[in-house]
Write a structure and sequence with these properties.
Blueprint (H helix, E strand, L loop, with lengths): L1 E3 L22 E9 L6 E5 L19 E6 L4 E14 L10 E2 L8 H13 L4 H8 L2 H4 L4 E8 L2 H7 L10 H13 L5 H8 L4 H8 L4 E8 L18 H16 L4 E6 L5 H13 L4 E5 L7 H8 L5 E4 L5 H12 L5 E4 L11 E7 L16 H12 L3 E5 L4 H8 L4 E5 L10 E6 L3 H6 L6 H12 L3 E5 L8 E3 L17 E3 L4 E3 L6 E2 L14 E3 L3 H11 L5 E4 L9 H11 L4 E4 L12 E6 L13 H13 L10 E6 L5 H7 L3 H15 L6 E9 L2 H18 L7 E13 L2 E10 L2 H12 L8 E7 L6
Length: 774
């Protein structure tokens, strides 16, 4: 084993030079391995001849397969990926040999290998960790398969079987078993062979002992699943704006070029139909498409539209079992799937004939991974599109400012859908100022006077209502009015949320729970006040105010079942439910013509967080949920309840005016050097000891400033306590880094952390292009 110390990115698949002038005995076949866990480096191992036998493809060592190798002084077993194979002159130092090849086929294509190398460099993450993220655990473990011992007939036995008494057989059952196996030409298990030959397994075991049968261990599938096939649907007629957008996408498809396009269309403008027809064009040439949707928007409604238009699709999301994920992955890799629909990790789908990538609702925060590797699916998709020469289409009614700036500067083409299909009007949006006395006097609960009246009118006229409240639970905090005590999580600096149905107070970050206190632990007073508003309390209020109308709640607490989303949305589609309330999972991806009223119960829940994207997220959430109404002939209206009625994000969303919001927000971003006018990285140091974590953060800050010395364009803030100072039992300190180019940040972080030694109980992370500043 030899560690490679060079950090220069290599051409992973350059052809090896022919060793014409070298003695073959002086050459070695060397495999370069990166470990799934362990040092972030590449290691050289000798590839034994047994793993280079082309006649045994299931044991062949090749790039993209996992291997087991001896590692370290104790030669402990470690698992890694083969990333290169080269023929090299033998040196005086002996290399350790690869111990085993774990996969029967390559799990990572050459193109995906290059993509993961880029991700490791860009997001400052070990390459082996990136590879593990790209290949699902169910695929690595071959979920849905089991090891079986298969029996086959050696060639010499097959020839002797043709001659009577040429084999030393002790019973007719043995001959019958051999003849049965010879007739099938396929390996079988002992049980299968016994059943076919009409005997017990006893004669078969004797044949094995005599060496008349060969036995090998293989993995086989335990069964397959068959998806329901909906009725086929044909494409819809497009309006002029949709046709123009489709023509530009088709032109890029026909040119087979990597072209980025932002499809900016108001809610209800028919963006999905443009995607579908563009994908149909790509599939018509035998190409595959990847469609990324936010996990929360991966509704049965979305999937049903794709199933109705394409014969072979794969759906990838977090609720799949490892078995299902492994089977989808295998079908995709075999080219059997036309369209892959999934959440952010579907960007790594092993499509051998990729023709188009689409990201719907591209502004969604769920496209950013919050654990290593901390990638953003939009940026990875663009890198993959460039590498494979295919178009990338980003779609949204409220694009991320980073994507909007790319379109404004001409890096991406801008495709506009400014009108709804059938020229339906955008819904009227009214702002309800909760500071007004008349509203607050009437509203002993969450529903203001105006929203109550609007709901009554909509329901009376046969319409349906959607209510958004982006807070789970019943009460968001418990407080003693006498001494000010607040019930907090034992492991986080966060208030506990009361969940009435389960009768517990719960931390929404670490899942710590306990029974609600009957009296104040500090002053022993018995008047604990339950304050704040969550979706459980809102549901109770709605049921009390509108007892004659069926309602349902959609949040992560109520949607725990495998088909929970589908069951509730199907009832809402049929009109069995008249009121649907919930968190942001109801704000996008839903298309129900019967909805005539949308109410935003509290538009301020995230507006004032310590995050420079807080206003942008509020605008997007309000604008998106407003777009759920007015899609039918009866039209619709929206009421937005807020304590900040004059905030630019609220007023722009009420006018459906993305351009105005973006123009104002861009000015602020430019002044502060925030994306898209600069690059950012965030480093978080955490540990059980507050003192140790703080000292390590301060030491790291000194090293970062030293690495950045002389470059006045780099800005380093901190360290300071994170907005959530303690999380899951660890104290947290963070640093914020800004620079005109991301390469500057990557360089100083690598320099500062190369020899950075922190106490064992302290850990740190680097987040390039952070999306969550809390």
């Amino acid at each position: 084993m030899t560690k490679r110390t060079s950090t220069r990115q290599q051409d992973l698949f350059a052809d090896d030079p022919e060793p014409w002038e070298q003695d073959a005995a002086a050459l070695k076949c060397v495999a370069t391995i990166v470990l799934s866990e362990g040092p972030d480096a590449e290691f050289d191992y000798e590839a034994p001849a047994v793993f280079r036998d082309a006649d045994r493809p299931e044991r062949l060592l090749e790039v993209g397969r996992r291997v087991r190798v001896p590692f370290g002084r104790g030669n402990r077993e470690a698992v890694g990926y083969c990333v290169a194979i080269e023929t090299k002159p033998a040196t005086g130092r002996a290399l350790k040999a690869v111990a085993a090849v774990l996969d029967e086929q390559s799990l990572v294509s050459p193109a995906m290998m290059r993509l993961t190398r880029w991700m490791a460099d860009y997001y400052l993450c070990p390459w082996g960790q990136v590879l593990d993220a790209v290949v699902p655990a169910g695929v690595r473990g071959r979920a849905g398969t089991r090891e079986v011992k298969l029996l086959s007939l050696p060639d010499d036995v097959r020839q002797q079987l043709r001659r009577v008494d040429a084999l030393p057989l002790s019973s007719p059952q043995q001959r019958k078993a051999l003849e049965t196996l010879a007739a099938t030409r396929r390996p079988m298990t002992a049980a299968q062979l016994a059943q076919r030959a009409g005997c017990t397994t006893g004669p078969i075991r004797k044949l094995l002992k005599q060496g008349l049968l060969e036995e090998r261990t293989e993995r086989v599938d335990t069964g397959e699943t068959v998806d329901d096939v909906p009725l086929r649907e044909s494409g819809l007629a497009l309006n002029a704006d949709q046709r123009s957008a489709l023509e530009q996408i088709v032109a890029a498809l026909d040119a087979r070029e990597a072209r980025g396009m932002l499809l900016h269309g108001v809610t209800g403008s028919g963006k999905t139909e443009v995607y579908l027809q563009a994908i149909e064009h790509s599939v018509g040439f035998g190409r595959q498409a990847i469609v990324l949707v936010p996990e929360i928007s991966l509704t049965p409604q979305t999937v049903r539209r794709f199933r109705a238009r394409f014969d072979r699709i794969a759906v990838l999301h977090s609720r799949l079992t490892d078995v299902e994920r492994q089977r989808h992955w295998r079908r995709i890799a075999a080219g059997e799937v036309q369209v892959v629909v999934g959440a952010r990790s579907a960007v790594f789908a092993p499509t051998p004939h990729l023709g188009l990538i689409v990201i719907d609702e591209e502004h969604e925060a769920s496209f950013k991974q919050d654990s290593a590797p901390r990638y953003h699916a939009r940026d990875v998709a663009w890198r993959r599109a460039q590498a494979e020469g295919v178009p990338l289409v980003l779609g949204s009614a409220t694009p991320a400012l980073e994507s909007w700036q790319r379109a404004r500067t001409g890096e991406f083409a801008l495709l506009e859908l400014p009108r709804r299909v059938l020229d339906r009007p955008m819904p009227e949006v009214s702002i309800v100022d909760l500071r007004e006395g008349a509203e607050s006097r009437f509203a002993s609960g969450a529903i203001s006077r105006r929203l109550h009246q609007a709901m009554h009118a909509a329901l009376r006229d046969g319409g349906q209502v959607i209510l958004l409240l982006n807070r789970r639970g019943f009460s968001t905090h418990l407080q003693c009015p006498a001494c000010g005590y607040v019930a907090k999580c034992e492991h986080c600096d966060l208030s506990l949320t009361f969940h009435r149905q389960e009768h517990v107070v719960l931390c929404h970050y670490c899942d710590f729970e306990q029974a609600p206190p009957e009296f104040c632990p500090d002053c022993k007073g018995g008047a604990i006040r339950y304050g704040g508003l969550g979706t459980q309390k809102l549901e109770a209020e709605i049921r009390a105010r509108f007892p004659n109308y069926a309602c349902a709640r959609m949040d992560t607490d109520s949607m725990r079942g495998r088909t929970s989303h589908e069951d509730v949305l199907e009832k809402f589609r049929r009109g069995e439910l008249r009121i649907l309330l919930g968190t942001q999972m109801i704000a996008k991806g839903l298309d129900f013509p019967g909805v005539t009223l949308v109410g935003v119960v509290n538009a301020d829940t995230a507006l004032h967080l310590a995050d420079f994207r807080a206003a942008e997220r509020t605008f997007q959430l309000v604008a998106q949920v407003a777009g759920r109404t007015g899609r039918g002939e009866r039209g619709g209206r929206v009421l937005v309840q807020t304590l900040s009625p004059d905030h630019p994000a609220i007023t722009a969303a009420a006018r459906h005016d993305y351009d105005a919001f973006a123009a104002a927000a861009i000015v602020e971003r430019r002044a502060m050097g925030y994306p898209p006018y600069g690059s950012m990285a965030r480093m978080v140091v955490r540990g059980a000891s507050e003192i140790a974590a703080r000292e390590s953060a301060e030491h790291l800050g000194e090293r970062l400033r030293s690495a950045a010395a002389g470059d006045e364009t780099i800005r380093i803030l901190g360290p300071g306590p994170a907005p959530i100072p303690r999380l899951r039992g660890e104290h947290r300190f963070h640093l914020q880094l800004q620079a005109p180019r991301v390469e500057q940040l990557q360089a100083i972080i690598r320099t500062a952390t190369a020899t950075f030694a922190q106490p064992k109980e302290v850990r740190w992370i680097a987040d390039v292009d952070p999306w969550d500043m809390l």
